[in-house]
Amino acid sequence: EDKKRLSYAQKLDVAEHSVARRLLETAIAKQTNLIASADVMTTAELLDLADKVGPHIVALKTHIDIITDFDPDSTILPLKDLAAKHNFMLMEDRKFADIGNTQELQFSYGIYKISNWADFVTSQVIGGYDSLNCFRNVGVVAILGMSSKGTLTDAAYQAEALKVAQSHPNVIGGVSQKQIPEELLLFTPGVSIAETGDGKGQQYNTPEKVFADLQTDFIIVGRGIYKADHPEAAALNYKIAGWNAYTASL
Ligand code: 5BU
C-alpha cells in the first residue's frame, strides 16, 4: 500500500522560500502539477507552445540555449507576458555545474541573462555548497539523480548531493527518480504516458508510477506534449493524469 504524503497545502504551510510558495500556490490554484518542457528550437515555436499549454501548467521549463533565434526582446519579453497571462512560472534547466564565480557569470551575463527572467533554475551540486550562493534571487532545483540509463548519480552520490541540497537556503527542491525528504520539492522528468524510452537513453515512467512510488510533487513532460499532434490537448491530458495521480497518493 502507498504511503501517505503531504498535500500541496500542507507543504505550503511550512514552505519558506518565496519560489517554493509560489509554485505550491499556483499548483493549488490551477489544480496542476505539470511542468511542460519546451525543448523547441525557435522563438515562434516556444511562444506558440507556451500560449497553448499555459492554462494547464504550473511552470514552463526551458533550455534557452537550444533556441536558434534567441533575442531578449522578441523571445523573453513575450514569454514573460505569456507567463503572466496564464500564471505559470519559468524554470530554466541550465544544469549549472561549475565553480561559484563561473556560475555567477553564466547566470547573469552572456546573451541569455538568465537571472533577468527565470523564476528558478536547475543546478548540479557537484561544485559544492558555495557554488550555489550565486543564485540569490531565484530558487534552485538541485540535480540529485538523472532519468537516463547508466547515469552516474548512484546512491552514494545522491546521498551526498542531498546533504548539499538540504542545507542550502537557495535550494527549493531536487530532480530525482527517487523519493527525497518531504521538505524539498521533488521534480521528476522522464514521464510519459505512451513511451518507455526514446532509444537515446531516456527512461520513462507514467504519472501514476511517479506519484505512487516517489511521492513526487511535479512531473516534467517534454516530447509527450510538444511533439503531440495537439499539444494543448496533450497538456490537458497530462495535467489530469498528474492531478489524479497526486490525489490518489494522498
Ligand atoms: P522528454 O522529451 O519528456 O524526454 O524531455 C525531458 C526533459 O527533462 C528534457 O528537457 C531533459 O533535459 C530534462 N531532464 C531529463 O529528462 N532527465 C533528467 O534526469 C534531467 C532533466 Br536532470
From TrEMBL:
It is an enzyme of class 2 (transferase). Its cofactor is Mg(2+). Its EC number is 2.4.2.10. The keyword Lyase applies. Keywords: Decarboxylase, Glycosyltransferase, Lyase, Magnesium, Multifunctional enzyme, Pyrimidine biosynthesis, Transferase. The active site is at D93, K95, D98. Pathway: Pyrimidine metabolism; UMP biosynthesis via de novo pathway; UMP from orotate: step 2/2; Pyrimidine metabolism; UMP biosynthesis via de novo pathway; UMP from orotate: step 1/2. One of its GO terms (molecular function) is magnesium ion binding. Catalyzes the decarboxylation of orotidine 5'-monophosphate (OMP) to uridine 5'-monophosphate (UMP). Catalyzes the transfer of a ribosyl phosphate group from 5-phosphoribose 1-diphosphate to orotate, leading to the formation of orotidine monophosphate (OMP). In the N-terminal section; belongs to the purine/pyrimidine phosphoribosyltransferase family. This is Orotate phosphoribosyltransferase. The lineage of its organism: Bacteria, Pseudomonadati, Bacteroidota, Flavobacteriia, Flavobacteriales. The chain holds residues 203 to 452 of 452 of the full protein.
